[in-house]
Amino acid sequence: MRRPSDKFHLMTVFHTVVQTGAFNKAAEKMGMKASSVSKAISQLEQLLESKLLYRTTRNLSLTDIGKYYYDQCDHILGDVVTLEETIGSLQNEPSGTLRITAPTAFGQYFLGPRLSTFLEKYPNINIDLDLTEKLRDITKEGYDLAIRSSKGLPDSSLFALKLIAQKRVLVASPHYIEQSGQPKTPDDLPKHQTLVYSAMAQAQRWSMSNKTTQYHVDITPRLKTNSYYTLRDAARSGLGIANLNDYMVADDIKSGKLVHVLPDYTQSQRDRFAVYQQKRELSPKLDAFLSFLTDALHCQS
Question: Which residues form the HTH lysR-type domain (predicted)?
Protein backbone atom coordinates (compact mmCIF):
# COMPACT_ATOMS: atom_id res chain seq x y z
CA MET A 1 0.00 0.00 0.00
CA ARG A 2 1.41 3.42 -0.97
CA ARG A 3 2.21 5.73 1.91
CA PRO A 4 0.55 9.20 1.73
CA SER A 5 3.94 10.92 1.94
CA ASP A 6 5.73 8.71 -0.59
CA LYS A 7 8.12 11.24 -2.15
CA PHE A 8 8.16 9.56 -5.55
CA HIS A 9 4.36 9.62 -5.68
CA LEU A 10 4.28 13.28 -4.59
CA MET A 11 6.91 14.13 -7.19
CA THR A 12 4.83 12.42 -9.89
CA VAL A 13 1.71 14.31 -8.86
CA PHE A 14 3.56 17.64 -8.91
CA HIS A 15 5.07 16.88 -12.32
CA THR A 16 1.65 15.98 -13.73
CA VAL A 17 0.05 19.17 -12.29
CA VAL A 18 2.66 21.33 -13.98
CA GLN A 19 2.32 19.44 -17.28
CA THR A 20 -1.48 19.65 -17.35
CA GLY A 21 -1.72 23.12 -15.82
CA ALA A 22 -4.59 22.30 -13.46
CA PHE A 23 -5.37 20.18 -10.44
CA ASN A 24 -8.53 18.73 -11.94
CA LYS A 25 -6.76 17.76 -15.19
CA ALA A 26 -3.92 16.15 -13.24
CA ALA A 27 -6.46 14.30 -11.11
CA GLU A 28 -8.23 12.99 -14.20
CA LYS A 29 -4.95 11.85 -15.78
CA MET A 30 -3.80 10.06 -12.63
CA GLY A 31 -7.17 8.61 -11.62
CA MET A 32 -7.33 10.64 -8.42
CA LYS A 33 -9.67 13.15 -6.84
CA ALA A 34 -8.80 16.83 -7.29
CA SER A 35 -8.78 17.22 -3.51
CA SER A 36 -6.22 14.40 -3.24
CA VAL A 37 -4.01 16.13 -5.81
CA SER A 38 -4.19 19.39 -3.87
CA LYS A 39 -3.37 17.57 -0.64
CA ALA A 40 -0.38 15.86 -2.29
CA ILE A 41 1.07 19.19 -3.43
CA SER A 42 0.65 20.60 0.06
CA GLN A 43 2.40 17.56 1.56
CA LEU A 44 5.28 17.93 -0.90
CA GLU A 45 5.71 21.60 -0.05
CA GLN A 46 5.71 20.74 3.65
CA LEU A 47 8.35 18.05 3.14
CA LEU A 48 10.56 20.41 1.12
CA GLU A 49 9.76 23.37 3.37
CA SER A 50 9.39 25.41 0.19
CA LYS A 51 6.53 26.84 -1.83
CA LEU A 52 6.44 25.35 -5.31
CA LEU A 53 3.27 26.78 -6.84
CA TYR A 54 1.40 30.05 -6.82
CA ARG A 55 -2.31 29.24 -6.91
CA THR A 56 -5.25 31.40 -7.88
CA THR A 57 -8.79 30.40 -8.74
CA ARG A 58 -7.89 30.43 -12.42
CA ASN A 59 -4.16 29.89 -12.77
CA LEU A 60 -1.16 27.99 -11.47
CA SER A 61 2.39 29.26 -11.77
CA LEU A 62 5.73 28.03 -10.55
CA THR A 63 7.89 29.72 -7.98
CA ASP A 64 11.62 29.93 -8.69
CA ILE A 65 12.19 26.93 -6.46
CA GLY A 66 9.22 25.24 -8.14
CA LYS A 67 10.81 25.74 -11.57
CA TYR A 68 14.07 24.20 -10.39
CA TYR A 69 12.28 21.32 -8.69
CA TYR A 70 10.16 20.67 -11.80
CA ASP A 71 13.27 20.52 -14.03
CA GLN A 72 14.88 18.00 -11.70
CA CYS A 73 11.64 15.98 -11.51
CA ASP A 74 11.52 15.91 -15.29
CA HIS A 75 15.04 14.40 -15.43
CA ILE A 76 14.41 11.92 -12.62
CA LEU A 77 11.07 10.68 -13.94
CA GLY A 78 12.53 10.49 -17.44
CA ASP A 79 15.36 8.30 -16.12
CA VAL A 80 12.80 6.06 -14.41
CA VAL A 81 10.92 5.60 -17.68
CA THR A 82 14.19 4.80 -19.49
CA LEU A 83 15.14 2.32 -16.75
CA GLU A 84 11.78 0.55 -16.99
CA GLU A 85 12.05 0.36 -20.78
CA THR A 86 15.58 -1.04 -20.48
CA ILE A 87 14.49 -3.67 -17.96
CA GLY A 88 11.62 -4.60 -20.26
CA SER A 89 13.94 -5.01 -23.22
CA LEU A 90 16.33 -7.13 -21.14
CA GLN A 91 13.43 -9.37 -20.17
CA ASN A 92 12.49 -9.80 -23.83
CA GLU A 93 15.90 -9.88 -25.54
CA PRO A 94 18.35 -12.48 -24.18
CA SER A 95 21.70 -10.87 -23.41
CA GLY A 96 24.67 -10.99 -21.04
CA THR A 97 27.17 -13.67 -20.05
CA LEU A 98 25.87 -17.18 -19.32
CA ARG A 99 28.18 -19.16 -17.01
CA ILE A 100 27.85 -22.93 -17.49
CA THR A 101 29.60 -25.87 -15.85
CA ALA A 102 29.34 -29.33 -17.39
CA PRO A 103 31.12 -32.71 -17.43
CA THR A 104 34.13 -32.69 -19.74
CA ALA A 105 32.89 -35.35 -22.15
CA PHE A 106 29.43 -33.83 -22.50
CA GLY A 107 30.95 -30.44 -23.14
CA GLN A 108 33.44 -31.68 -25.70
CA TYR A 109 31.17 -34.05 -27.59
CA PHE A 110 27.77 -32.39 -27.36
CA LEU A 111 27.90 -28.76 -26.23
CA GLY A 112 31.08 -27.69 -28.02
CA PRO A 113 29.99 -28.55 -31.57
CA ARG A 114 26.66 -26.76 -31.08
CA LEU A 115 27.69 -23.55 -29.30
CA SER A 116 28.41 -21.66 -32.51
CA THR A 117 24.83 -22.25 -33.68
CA PHE A 118 23.45 -20.93 -30.38
CA LEU A 119 25.74 -17.89 -30.34
CA GLU A 120 24.87 -17.01 -33.93
CA LYS A 121 21.20 -17.12 -33.01
CA TYR A 122 21.71 -14.95 -29.91
CA PRO A 123 24.43 -12.36 -30.72
CA ASN A 124 23.97 -10.54 -27.39
CA ILE A 125 24.77 -13.60 -25.26
CA ASN A 126 28.32 -14.60 -24.28
CA ILE A 127 29.19 -18.09 -22.98
CA ASP A 128 31.62 -18.86 -20.16
CA LEU A 129 31.91 -22.68 -20.22
CA ASP A 130 33.73 -24.65 -17.50
CA LEU A 131 34.30 -28.34 -18.28
CA THR A 132 35.15 -30.36 -15.19
CA GLU A 133 34.32 -33.53 -13.32
CA LYS A 134 34.06 -31.50 -10.09
CA LEU A 135 30.59 -30.89 -8.67
CA ARG A 136 30.59 -27.10 -8.64
CA ASP A 137 28.64 -25.11 -6.04
CA ILE A 138 26.78 -23.00 -8.56
CA THR A 139 25.44 -20.60 -5.91
CA LYS A 140 28.79 -19.80 -4.29
CA GLU A 141 30.75 -19.88 -7.55
CA GLY A 142 28.26 -17.83 -9.55
CA TYR A 143 27.21 -20.26 -12.28
CA ASP A 144 23.92 -19.78 -14.10
CA LEU A 145 23.64 -23.44 -15.10
CA ALA A 146 25.14 -26.84 -14.30
CA ILE A 147 24.73 -29.98 -16.41
CA ARG A 148 24.73 -33.09 -14.22
CA SER A 149 24.02 -36.79 -14.40
CA SER A 150 22.05 -36.58 -11.17
CA LYS A 151 19.87 -33.88 -9.66
CA GLY A 152 22.49 -33.08 -7.03
CA LEU A 153 20.38 -30.53 -5.19
CA PRO A 154 21.90 -29.99 -1.75
CA ASP A 155 20.43 -26.49 -1.84
CA SER A 156 16.63 -26.62 -1.88
CA SER A 157 16.51 -23.22 -3.59
CA LEU A 158 17.90 -24.71 -6.82
CA PHE A 159 15.79 -25.85 -9.76
CA ALA A 160 16.35 -29.02 -11.80
CA LEU A 161 15.11 -29.86 -15.29
CA LYS A 162 15.42 -33.37 -16.65
CA LEU A 163 16.96 -33.06 -20.09
CA ILE A 164 17.17 -36.63 -21.34
CA ALA A 165 17.88 -40.22 -20.34
CA GLN A 166 21.52 -40.83 -21.25
CA LYS A 167 22.31 -44.24 -22.74
CA ARG A 168 25.51 -46.13 -23.43
CA VAL A 169 25.93 -48.09 -26.65
CA LEU A 170 28.47 -50.55 -28.02
CA VAL A 171 30.10 -49.48 -31.28
CA ALA A 172 32.76 -50.71 -33.67
CA SER A 173 33.98 -49.79 -37.13
CA PRO A 174 32.56 -51.52 -40.21
CA HIS A 175 36.10 -52.81 -40.88
CA TYR A 176 36.31 -54.46 -37.46
CA ILE A 177 32.88 -56.08 -37.88
CA GLU A 178 33.92 -57.33 -41.33
CA GLN A 179 37.12 -58.84 -39.94
CA SER A 180 35.87 -60.16 -36.55
CA GLY A 181 32.16 -60.62 -37.08
CA GLN A 182 29.15 -59.18 -35.27
CA PRO A 183 28.55 -60.56 -31.73
CA LYS A 184 25.26 -62.45 -31.55
CA THR A 185 24.75 -62.05 -27.78
CA PRO A 186 26.65 -60.30 -24.94
CA ASP A 187 28.22 -63.66 -24.07
CA ASP A 188 30.25 -63.32 -27.29
CA LEU A 189 31.96 -60.11 -26.13
CA PRO A 190 34.88 -61.78 -24.26
CA LYS A 191 35.95 -63.26 -27.59
CA HIS A 192 36.31 -59.77 -29.08
CA GLN A 193 38.78 -56.95 -28.68
CA THR A 194 37.21 -54.40 -26.34
CA LEU A 195 37.98 -50.77 -25.57
CA VAL A 196 37.25 -49.64 -22.01
CA TYR A 197 36.79 -46.29 -20.27
CA SER A 198 38.84 -46.75 -17.10
CA ALA A 199 37.17 -44.04 -14.97
CA MET A 200 33.82 -45.84 -14.99
CA ALA A 201 32.80 -48.01 -12.04
CA GLN A 202 33.24 -51.69 -12.83
CA ALA A 203 34.86 -50.70 -16.11
CA GLN A 204 35.68 -54.29 -17.09
CA ARG A 205 32.18 -55.64 -16.47
CA TRP A 206 29.61 -54.67 -19.08
CA SER A 207 25.97 -55.16 -18.10
CA MET A 208 23.03 -55.18 -20.50
CA SER A 209 19.73 -56.90 -21.13
CA ASN A 210 17.10 -57.72 -23.69
CA LYS A 211 13.43 -58.36 -23.03
CA THR A 212 14.09 -61.66 -21.27
CA THR A 213 17.66 -61.87 -19.95
CA GLN A 214 20.10 -59.76 -17.94
CA TYR A 215 23.80 -60.18 -18.85
CA HIS A 216 26.93 -59.28 -16.84
CA VAL A 217 29.99 -59.87 -18.97
CA ASP A 218 33.59 -59.69 -17.71
CA ILE A 219 36.01 -58.55 -20.39
CA THR A 220 39.75 -58.15 -20.77
CA PRO A 221 40.30 -54.88 -22.64
CA ARG A 222 42.74 -54.50 -25.50
CA LEU A 223 42.78 -50.80 -24.64
CA LYS A 224 41.87 -49.11 -21.35
CA THR A 225 42.01 -45.32 -20.98
CA ASN A 226 40.34 -42.41 -19.21
CA SER A 227 39.98 -40.52 -22.51
CA TYR A 228 36.71 -40.83 -24.41
CA TYR A 229 38.34 -39.23 -27.43
CA THR A 230 40.97 -41.95 -27.52
CA LEU A 231 38.33 -44.68 -27.26
CA ARG A 232 36.23 -43.25 -30.06
CA ASP A 233 39.26 -42.82 -32.31
CA ALA A 234 40.35 -46.39 -31.55
CA ALA A 235 36.89 -47.70 -32.40
CA ARG A 236 36.87 -45.71 -35.65
CA SER A 237 40.26 -47.12 -36.61
CA GLY A 238 39.02 -50.70 -36.19
CA LEU A 239 40.81 -51.62 -32.96
CA GLY A 240 37.75 -53.13 -31.28
CA ILE A 241 34.35 -52.62 -29.64
CA ALA A 242 33.91 -49.54 -27.44
CA ASN A 243 31.22 -48.79 -24.86
CA LEU A 244 30.39 -45.07 -25.18
CA ASN A 245 27.63 -42.60 -24.37
CA ASP A 246 25.14 -42.32 -27.19
CA TYR A 247 25.70 -38.60 -27.78
CA MET A 248 29.39 -39.28 -28.44
CA VAL A 249 28.77 -41.59 -31.38
CA ALA A 250 25.32 -40.65 -32.74
CA ASP A 251 26.76 -38.74 -35.72
CA ASP A 252 29.30 -41.49 -36.46
CA ILE A 253 26.56 -44.13 -36.49
CA LYS A 254 24.44 -41.99 -38.84
CA SER A 255 27.39 -41.41 -41.18
CA GLY A 256 28.43 -45.08 -41.16
CA LYS A 257 31.82 -44.51 -39.53
CA LEU A 258 30.69 -46.71 -36.64
CA VAL A 259 28.23 -49.58 -36.35
CA HIS A 260 25.88 -50.09 -33.40
CA VAL A 261 26.85 -53.46 -31.91
CA LEU A 262 24.16 -55.61 -30.23
CA PRO A 263 21.39 -53.03 -30.89
CA ASP A 264 18.73 -55.30 -29.37
CA TYR A 265 20.40 -55.12 -25.96
CA THR A 266 20.18 -52.06 -23.72
CA GLN A 267 22.30 -50.81 -20.82
CA SER A 268 21.03 -48.96 -17.77
CA GLN A 269 20.26 -45.30 -18.35
CA ARG A 270 21.34 -42.23 -16.39
CA ASP A 271 19.14 -39.18 -16.36
CA ARG A 272 20.88 -35.95 -17.28
CA PHE A 273 19.69 -32.75 -15.58
CA ALA A 274 20.08 -29.02 -15.95
CA VAL A 275 20.45 -27.41 -12.51
CA TYR A 276 20.05 -23.66 -12.05
CA GLN A 277 19.48 -21.00 -9.41
CA GLN A 278 16.50 -18.99 -10.59
CA LYS A 279 13.28 -19.57 -12.45
CA ARG A 280 14.14 -19.73 -16.13
CA GLU A 281 11.38 -17.27 -17.09
CA LEU A 282 13.18 -14.60 -15.03
CA SER A 283 16.38 -14.99 -17.07
CA PRO A 284 15.93 -14.73 -20.85
CA LYS A 285 19.50 -15.91 -21.53
CA LEU A 286 19.00 -19.02 -19.38
CA ASP A 287 15.59 -19.74 -20.87
CA ALA A 288 16.98 -19.39 -24.40
CA PHE A 289 19.85 -21.79 -23.70
CA LEU A 290 17.66 -24.39 -21.98
CA SER A 291 15.22 -24.34 -24.91
CA PHE A 292 18.11 -24.70 -27.38
CA LEU A 293 19.67 -27.53 -25.36
CA THR A 294 16.49 -29.56 -24.94
CA ASP A 295 15.66 -29.21 -28.63
CA ALA A 296 19.17 -30.36 -29.62
CA LEU A 297 19.05 -33.36 -27.28
CA HIS A 298 15.62 -34.46 -28.44
CA CYS A 299 16.60 -34.08 -32.10
CA GLN A 300 19.58 -36.37 -31.52
CA SER A 301 17.54 -38.97 -29.63
Answer: 6-63
Assign a CATH topology to domain 96-165+270-300. D-Maltodextrin-Binding Protein; domain 2 (3.40.190)
- Which tens digits make up the pLDDT trace of 38-82? 999 999 999 999 999 998 777 889 999 999 999 999 889 888 887
- Domain spans in the chain, listed from the N-terminal domain onward: 7-92, 96-165+270-300, 168-261
- pLDDT at 3 (0 to 100): 47
Give the integer Cα–Cα distance in Å for 75 and 52: 17
Identify the architecture of domain 7-92 in CATH: Orthogonal Bundle (1.10)
CATH 3.30.420.40 fits 168-261, yes or no: no
Residues in the chain: 301
